[in-house]
Design goal:
The complex is a heterodimer.
Chain A lengths: L12 H4 L6 H21 L2 H27 L7 H18 L5 H20 L8 H20 L12 E2 L3 E3 L2 E4 L5 H24 L1 H11 L1 H6 L4 H28 L1 E2 L6 H14 L4 H24 L6 H22 L4 H14 L5
Antiparallel strand pairs in A: 1-4, 2-3
Chain B lengths: L34 H19 L1 H8 L1 H32 L6 H17 L4 H24 L7 H23 L17 E6 L2 E6 H23 L1 H11 L1 H6 L4 H26 L8 H13 L4 H26 L4 H15 L14
Antiparallel strand pairs in B: 1-2
Classes of the chains: A mainly alpha, B mainly alpha.
């Protein structure tokens, strides 16, 4: 009843091929954007913006990146953290050498550095498949993590071994560094994430996305119908690493404000993989759902018990957190292996036929 | 331990000038840069090449006892890697699950053993109880995780073992606490100390616990081989590994087989945990060794038990030799990724690993 296509006629191919063919969907996306751009900045305090919304958006972007590789092209990667790190370090080096260029330009450009590295480590993907490839991408992860620690050039030879984000402005307003307010940083992150999500949506719904999905479903069959495997797989690696690189640069420049090599270790890769799988493989919306669940769940677990009057030792909370997150992952997988995105589409179907389920 | 080649007993004599005539190497760039700069650059390059291709072998020749020592340490590390890889292979063969939780099972079993002993349980009773716990764990995993997820894609099952990893970390820390523990080596009559003997004009030091580890690992591998080849359950296991459907159709219960393989790899995990815990200490940092066993796995092939053993030894020895002789060139710590690079190079030539089954693809 609420979500029904009845009466919505399309008169052109363009209208029929639209990403959101239904009026309800277009209204929905408009409402979400309005909430994100207007309501949250108006109502949210700096804690909500700084500790929840900014990292949620950044991790969503990284999940989209991994989802392009794992969900759409079927190549399992455990090197996401390292590719994010490449983006962050590239952005740091670029803004050190050219401090006058706008930082947004460098954040985007750092994605290209990450894409180049991603293509390099994606080269074996033509021969190596499945879990073998997953382990091969771990090689990228460990090698790059080692570089972040052992190559002093990457962190400008400073003694702490960490990178510090300098102050950079955007038309006179500070957006990185300690002086930037959470509000401005939120708007910058939100704009970049919205723009890149739109781009990803166009990629996966078009010819390139179809090619990726054909490779995912069966690469030999895809080859037979005329898809060249190596360029397709490498392009997936490049796009995926581009997204991961930008999100890594955002992570350091607009959220942490400085980073040690440990930020980009193998646990970060696993963390992003959790988001992608819990959210739903091969779904952009799922990337957002997964990031929300996996990132916000520990925060809720940390703040909920004191609100309810339980006083728990903080070390205990850590242990319980592991326990609960582990259990939830298993329970989610058993209940809905296709991820939260699938739950959403089931809900839409229910809304469509409600109140007469026939 | 030793730190750096170039100090200590095997100081290599300053190498003879590798460049009798430096002019010969840079004839093309005459006029581009000055004579002195050119020779300096050529010398630096030759020095680098010398350090990569000659110096390590000169060192090996000059101090064969150190080479033997390094080989031995690589062998021991390799045996332990093989044990972990064995745990993965057992489960992958029988159920097609890439069990990420193998590393945490090692830690969990070792923690259970030490925790029970600290509660005052005699050591060998604690060992028996730990084996019991691993059985309960295997049974629970089969009943609660694997059974509801039958027929799901591989990556979902892989993810479920991730969840299991977190579950076991949380549970283990909750019950036994997060602080590091010391493995009960004496109570289990594991030897301590080291023996030294003279070889090739130097001393080689062998830790007794390493020798014990090598022996126990060999016994376990031999035992598993006999179990697989000679017993009824072993034959059923091999049947399941070959084809689930065919095994089901001749009346082999998959559920039962899964409990058996998870239990077996639980015992392998316990043995690994005891050995590794005796070498360092028992805490959740041990989990990282699971990641070190992954290159072993892809090198040997996911489905091959001999592959796990040979792969383990190749990786262990290659890693130690590389770190000791070539590591100082790049700054140390290359151990963390060298194993992966070795495995990757092998994979480019044999995508299914050294001993893996041939990949046949059909439309």
């Amino acid at each position: 009843m609420f979500y029904r296509e009845a009466g919505q006629f399309k008169t052109s191919y363009a209208a029929d091929q639209a990403v959101f063919p239904l009026l309800q969907d277009r209204i929905g996306i408009g409402v979400i954007l309005a909430v994100a751009f207007v309501l949250i900045p108006l109502t949210g305090n700096s804690f909500v913006l700084q500790a929840m919304m900014i990292p949620f958006l950044i991790f969503s972007l990284a999940s989209i990146g991994l989802n392009i590789l794992t969900g759409y092209t079927g190549l399992i990667s455990l090197g996401t953290g390292a590719f994010m790190g490449v983006g962050a370090y590239a952005c740091y080096k670029l803004t050190t050498y050219f401090p006058n260029v706008n930082i947004i330009v460098w954040v985007i450009c750092s994605g290209f550095a990450s894409a180049a590295v991603g293509v390099l480590f994606g080269l074996p993907s033509l021969r190596i498949k499945g879990f073998y490839l997953a382990v091969a991408t771990l090689a990228a992860q460990f090698f790059l993590s080692w570089c972040f620690i052992r190559v002093p050039w990457l962190y400008n030879n400073n003694s702490s071994g960490a990178i510090e984000v300098p102050l950079r402005t955007f038309f006179g307003i500070p957006i990185t560094g300690p002086n930037a307010t959470p509000m401005t940083r939120y708007f910058v992150v939100l704009s970049i994430v919205v723009a890149m999500t739109w781009l990803a949506s166009n990629l996966v719904h078009g010819r390139i996305g179809r090619m990726w999905m054909a490779v995912r479903d069966m690469d030999i069959a895809a080859e037979l119908i005329g898809i060249r495997l190596l360029p397709t797989k490498l392009f997936a690696f490049a796009v995926s690493s581009f997204y991961c690189g930008v999100s890594g640069a955002l992570l350091v420049f607009l959220w942490y404000g400085g980073a040690e090599p440990a930020v980009f270790d193998v646990n970060q890769s696993f963390f992003i993989l959790f988001m992608v799988i819990i959210g739903g493989l091969g779904s952009l919306l799922g990337s957002f759902f997964g990031a929300a669940l996996i990132f916000l769940l520990p925060i809720v677990l940390r703040f909920l018990p004191p609100k309810l009057g339980f006083q728990i030792h903080s070390a205990m909370i850590d242990h319980v957190q592991f326990l609960v997150v582990g259990t939830l992952i298993i329970v989610f997988l058993i209940l809905e292996p296709a991820g939260l995105a699938r739950l959403w589409s089931i809900a839409k179907q229910k809304l469509r036929v409600w109140p007469f389920p026939y | 331990m030793r730190s750096n080649p170039g100090e200590g007993p095997f100081e290599v004599a300053p190498h003879p000038n590798p460049l009798p005539s430096k002019r010969a190497f840079t004839p093309v760039f005459d006029g581009l840069c000055g004579e002195r700069e050119r020779t300096a650059r050529g010398a630096a390059l030759m020095d680098l090449l010398y350090k990569i291709f000659l110096d390590p072998f000169v060192q090996m020749g000059a101090a064969p006892d150190l080479l033997v020592q390094t080989l031995w340490e690589g062998l021991v590390a390799g045996v332990l890697y093989s044990l972990i890889a064995l745990g993965y292979v057992l489960i992958f063969k029988a159920s097609g699950v890439f069990n990420f939780a193998q590393g945490i099972m090692v830690v969990f079993s070792a923690l259970t053993l030490v925790g029970l002993y600290q509660l005052g349980v005699p050591a060998f009773l604690a060992l028996a109880l730990t084996i019991g716990v691993m059985f309960v764990l295997a049974f629970g995993i089969e009943r609660l995780i694997l059974r509801p997820l039958v027929n799901q894609p591989d990556i979902i099952l892989f993810m479920a073992t991730f969840g299991l990893t977190y579950l076991l970390i949380g549970f283990g820390e909750l019950v036994f606490g997060g602080e590091p523990k010391v493995m009960i080596t004496e109570a289990l009559y594991l030897p301590k100390g080291a023996i030294e003997f003279k070889i090739l004009g130097g001393f080689v030091q062998l830790q007794k616990i390493d020798i014990a580890a090598a022996i126990i690992a060999s016994i376990m591998v031999a035992g598993l081989a006999v179990f697989f080849q000679k017993t009824r359950i072993g034959r059923a296991l091999r049947a399941v590994a070959d084809s689930h459907k065919a095994a089901l159709s001749v009346g082999i219960s998959l559920e039962y087989i899964w409990v058996v393989v998870w239990f077996t790899s639980g015992i392998v995990a316990l043995a690994t945990g005891i050995m590794w815990g005796a070498k360092s200490q028992v805490d959740f940092a041990l989990e990282i060794i699971a990641l070190k066993a992954l290159p072993v796995l892809i090198l040997g092939g996911f489905t091959s038990i001999p592959g796990a053993i040979v792969g383990g030894v190749i990786i262990g020895v290659g890693e130690k030799i590389g770190e000791f002789y070539w590591g100082p060139l790049l700054g140390s710590g290359i151990e963390s990724w060298l194993a992966y690079v070795i495995a990757l190079i092998f994979l480019l030539f044999r995508p299914q690993g050294l001993f893996g089954e041939r990949i046949i693809e059909r439309i």
